[in-house]
């Protein structure tokens, strides 16, 4: 199978063969004409070549490492660009009055091969200068070699000075980095040195152990104090705070005096309560005295124990201030023990905090030690680097006195004569041969360029790729069919005497039936553009359906073109063009039985019509299709191409599915892609696509032509039929192939 690229090239070559031939003839003629216009070359005069040799200069005695290294680097930097630099050419051009470009053109420098270097042969650079004047050739070669030696010395000196400047810059930077590293190390030692020393000599660990020992002693003492507090508190029935309050109140003489007065008044009130009412003047006076004393008692309580909160009732104050001397002594002891406990707790907390701080210092000791080592190492590295740079700078400055050139003149220029000659010109046959090759390339490139700009799809593989990208089912591939009708004219319509290609359309029909769960009854057959063979597809598909025993109706709905029913030796009603609505409204007028094919009926087109959309959207056309749905097993509608008009979309709501016909060599890629995208976006019932007019050599479905040739004899010239089958671009008959 021919590749799509080769097929595209061959098709465009066949279409543009005259243009290709014209470009080929023009180029070949132009090459012959140019060969005659080119004058014969002028004879080459006698020239003189001065040849000399440069070699590495002997190594001078050196006392510095930089001097030896510089000599070796200078030898490695020698190249043709260095030896023919402007520093050499400009002074020579001034002395010899020659242009620098001419000097470069006439100078030849040959370096030794790598093999010679590996074998240890002496290093030699051959310098050759060619000129028509022998004296000028010798003088110029001498100047070239002299300035090359001087340039080598200047190059070594420049390299040494650049090295010294670089070392000075880097030394200043290294010294600053050294100072920064030293400051960082000294700052760290001044801040963390004491802690590091304490950790290193064991002082820090001893402090941690001492703090832990003191904590254990304080806990033992604290447990004893807690036991005493609990014992005394249980005996008194008071907490330490309550004991403190009772001790203060019981020891105060004013509160004791007020308590005594209250007790005297209460002793007077108690016997009188049984005899006198509270309103009695004597009772009233005693109660007022009692209230006054209680108020004084509360005020004294606030003076002694002032919290700013509510003052207790007088009864509570009298109760809290009623300690006897023994209990008051126990209360004072309880208060002292509580104070001692608070002191011990504070000391314990302080020791715990001290222990944590010491442990943190001990835990940070490895990190600080590593940081110290890092800073010390960095400082030492910076010091070493600075020292090495200083040594290198001193060595480079000392090497200035040892600087020499890397080249020396091993052999002065020797003059040799180069005889002149007369070169041959361009032979006309060579020019024409080159023009022929160039003509083939340009004409072929022109055809290839035209094929790249060709939007048509020339092979079924290209069409299948587009269908696969959009998940459109390929219903089948159909070959070129050329039969002879009753008038011995070529026709693509299948006949009963030549049904060797009927199975291709049977495959398409079976694919349509399997496309949906319920077999579609009304199918629209359309194409992207004209000339893709949609009418041939509709006719032959109808013949295949009728041959399978299905009552089939073929409806020609392309009202913008004349009817193609003449291929069945049938003609539409002559009055149909004048009264199309009346024609489609009468079954007896539009429905015709095809005599050559059993079970096949046809509704010839009433076209061409100026108002085709009006007829297609009419109620007569709707009733025709509704009646056909009930009377026939399959209705095939031959509708116009989608690029011509939207008549197919007008009939789509009345149909069960849509089939798009394509054809290699006719279908254009942008049109097919945009049409399929519009159909998919509109969610139209697209059953699939068929590829029409596929050469038999490219068919993926096996052909039965050779097996059935004897059973179904073909009419007409066998050579002519074979040529049409092999031609991918063979055109269908004009009246039906263009549709």
Automatic annotation (TrEMBL):
Pfam families listed in its UniProt record: AAA_31 (PF13614)
Annotated coiled-coil segments of the chain: 157-184, 327-361
Keywords per UniProt: ATP-binding, Coiled coil, Kinase, Membrane, Nucleotide-binding, Transferase, Transmembrane, Transmembrane helix, Tyrosine-protein kinase
Enzyme class: transferase
InterPro entries recorded: AAA_dom, Bact_polysacc_biosynth/exp, P-loop_NTPase, Wzc-like_C
Ranges for domain AAA: 522-664
A GO cellular-component term linked to this record: plasma membrane
TM annotation in the entry: 18-38, 429-453
Record carries keyword 4Fe-4S: no
Catalytic activity: L-tyrosyl-[protein] + ATP = O-phospho-L-tyrosyl-[protein] + ADP + H(+)
Region (Disordered): 701-739
GO molecular function, one term: protein tyrosine kinase activity
Transmembrane keyword on record: yes
Listed EC numbers: 2.7.10.2
Family designation: Belongs to the CpsD/CapB family.
Protein name: non-specific protein-tyrosine kinase
Species in which this protein is naturally found: Lusitaniella coriacea LEGE 07157
Taxonomic placement: Bacteria, Bacillati, Cyanobacteriota, Cyanophyceae, Spirulinales
């Amino acid at each position: 199978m021919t590749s799509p690229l080769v097929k595209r090239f061959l098709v465009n070559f066949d279409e543009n063969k005259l243009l290709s031939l014209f470009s080929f003839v023009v180029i070949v003629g132009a090459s012959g004409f140019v060969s005659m216009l080119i004058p014969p070359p002028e004879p080459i005069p006698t020239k003189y070549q001065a040849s000399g040799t440069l070699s590495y200069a002997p190594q001078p005695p050196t006392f510095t490492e930089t001097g030896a290294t510089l000599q070796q680097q200078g030898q490695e930097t020698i190249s043709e660009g260095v030896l023919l630099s402007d520093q050499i050419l400009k002074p020579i051009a001034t002395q010899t009055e020659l242009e620098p470009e001419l000097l470069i053109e006439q100078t030849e420098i040959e370096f030794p091969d790598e093999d010679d270097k590996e074998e240890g042969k002496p290093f030699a650079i051959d310098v050759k200068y060619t000129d028509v004047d022998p004296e000028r050739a010798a003088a110029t070669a001498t100047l070239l070699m002299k300035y090359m030696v001087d340039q080598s010395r200047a190059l070594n000196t420049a390299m040494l000075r650049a090295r010294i400047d670089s070392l000075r810059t880097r030394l200043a930077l290294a010294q600053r980095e050294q100072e920064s590293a030293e400051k960082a190390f000294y700052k760290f030692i001044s801040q963390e040195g004491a802690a590091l020393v304490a950790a290193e000599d064991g002082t820090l660990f001893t402090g941690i152990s001492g703090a832990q020992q003191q904590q254990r002693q304080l806990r033992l003492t604290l447990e004893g104090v807690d036991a005493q507090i609990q014992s005394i508190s249980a005996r008194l029935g008071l907490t330490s705070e309550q004991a403190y309050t009772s001790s203060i109140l019981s020891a105060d003489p004013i509160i004791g005096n007020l308590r005594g007065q209250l007790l005297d008044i209460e002793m007077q009130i108690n016997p009188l309560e049984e005899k006198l009412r509270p309103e009695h003047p004597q009772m009233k006076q005693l109660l007022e005295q009692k209230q006054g004393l209680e108020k004084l008692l509360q005020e004294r309580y606030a003076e002694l124990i002032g919290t700013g909160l509510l003052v207790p009732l007088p009864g509570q104050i009298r109760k809290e201030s009623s300690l006897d001397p023994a209990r008051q002594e126990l209360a004072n002891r309880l208060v002292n023990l509580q104070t001692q406990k608070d002191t011990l707790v504070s000391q314990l907390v302080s020791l715990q905090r001290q222990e944590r701080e010491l442990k943190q210092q001990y835990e940070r000791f490895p990190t600080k030690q590593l940081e110290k080592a890092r800073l010390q190492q960095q400082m030492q590295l910076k010091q070493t680097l600075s020292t090495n740079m200083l040594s290198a700078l001193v060595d480079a400055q000392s090497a200035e006195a040892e600087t020499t050139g890397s080249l020396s003149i091993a052999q002065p220029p020797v003059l040799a004569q180069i005889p002149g000659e007369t070169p041959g010109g361009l032979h006309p046959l060579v020019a024409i041969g080159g023009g022929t090759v160039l003509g083939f390339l340009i004409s072929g490139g022109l055809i290839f360029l035209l094929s790249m700009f060709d939007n048509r799809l020339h092979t079924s593989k290209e069409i299948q790729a587009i269908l696969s990208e959009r998940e459109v089912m390929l219903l089948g591939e159909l070959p070129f069919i050329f039969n002879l009708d009753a008038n011995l004219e070529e026709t693509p319509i299948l006949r009963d005497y030549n049904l060797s290609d009927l199975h291709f359309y049977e495959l398409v029909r079976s694919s349509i039936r399997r496309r949906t769960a319920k077999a579609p009854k009304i199918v629209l057959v359309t194409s992207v553009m004209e000339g893709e063979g949609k009418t041939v597809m509709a006719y032959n598909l109808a013949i295949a359906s009728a041959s399978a025993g299905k009552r089939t109706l073929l409806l020609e709905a392309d009202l913008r073109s004349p009817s193609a029913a003449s291929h069945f030796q049938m003609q539409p009603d002559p009055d149909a063009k004048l009264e199309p609505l009346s024609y489609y409204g009468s079954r007896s007028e539009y429905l015709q039985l095809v005599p050559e094919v059993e079970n096949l009926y046809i509704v010839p087109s009433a076209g061409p019509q100026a108002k085709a959309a009006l007829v297609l959207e009419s109620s007569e056309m709707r009733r025709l299709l509704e009646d056909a749905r009930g009377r026939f097993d399959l209705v095939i509608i031959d509708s116009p191409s989608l690029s011509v008009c939207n008549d197919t979309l007008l009939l789509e709501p009345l149909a069960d599915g849509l089939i798009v016909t394509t054809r290699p060599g006719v279908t254009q890629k942008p049109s097919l892609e945009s049409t399929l995208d519009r159909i998919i976006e509109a969610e139209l019932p697209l059953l699939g696509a068929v590829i029409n007019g596929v050469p038999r050599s490219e068919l993926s479905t096996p052909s039965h032509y050779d097996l059935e040739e004897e059973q179904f004899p073909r009419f007409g010239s066998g050579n002519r039929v074979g040529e049409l089958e092999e031609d991918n671009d063979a055109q269908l008959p004009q009246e039906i192939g263009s549709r």
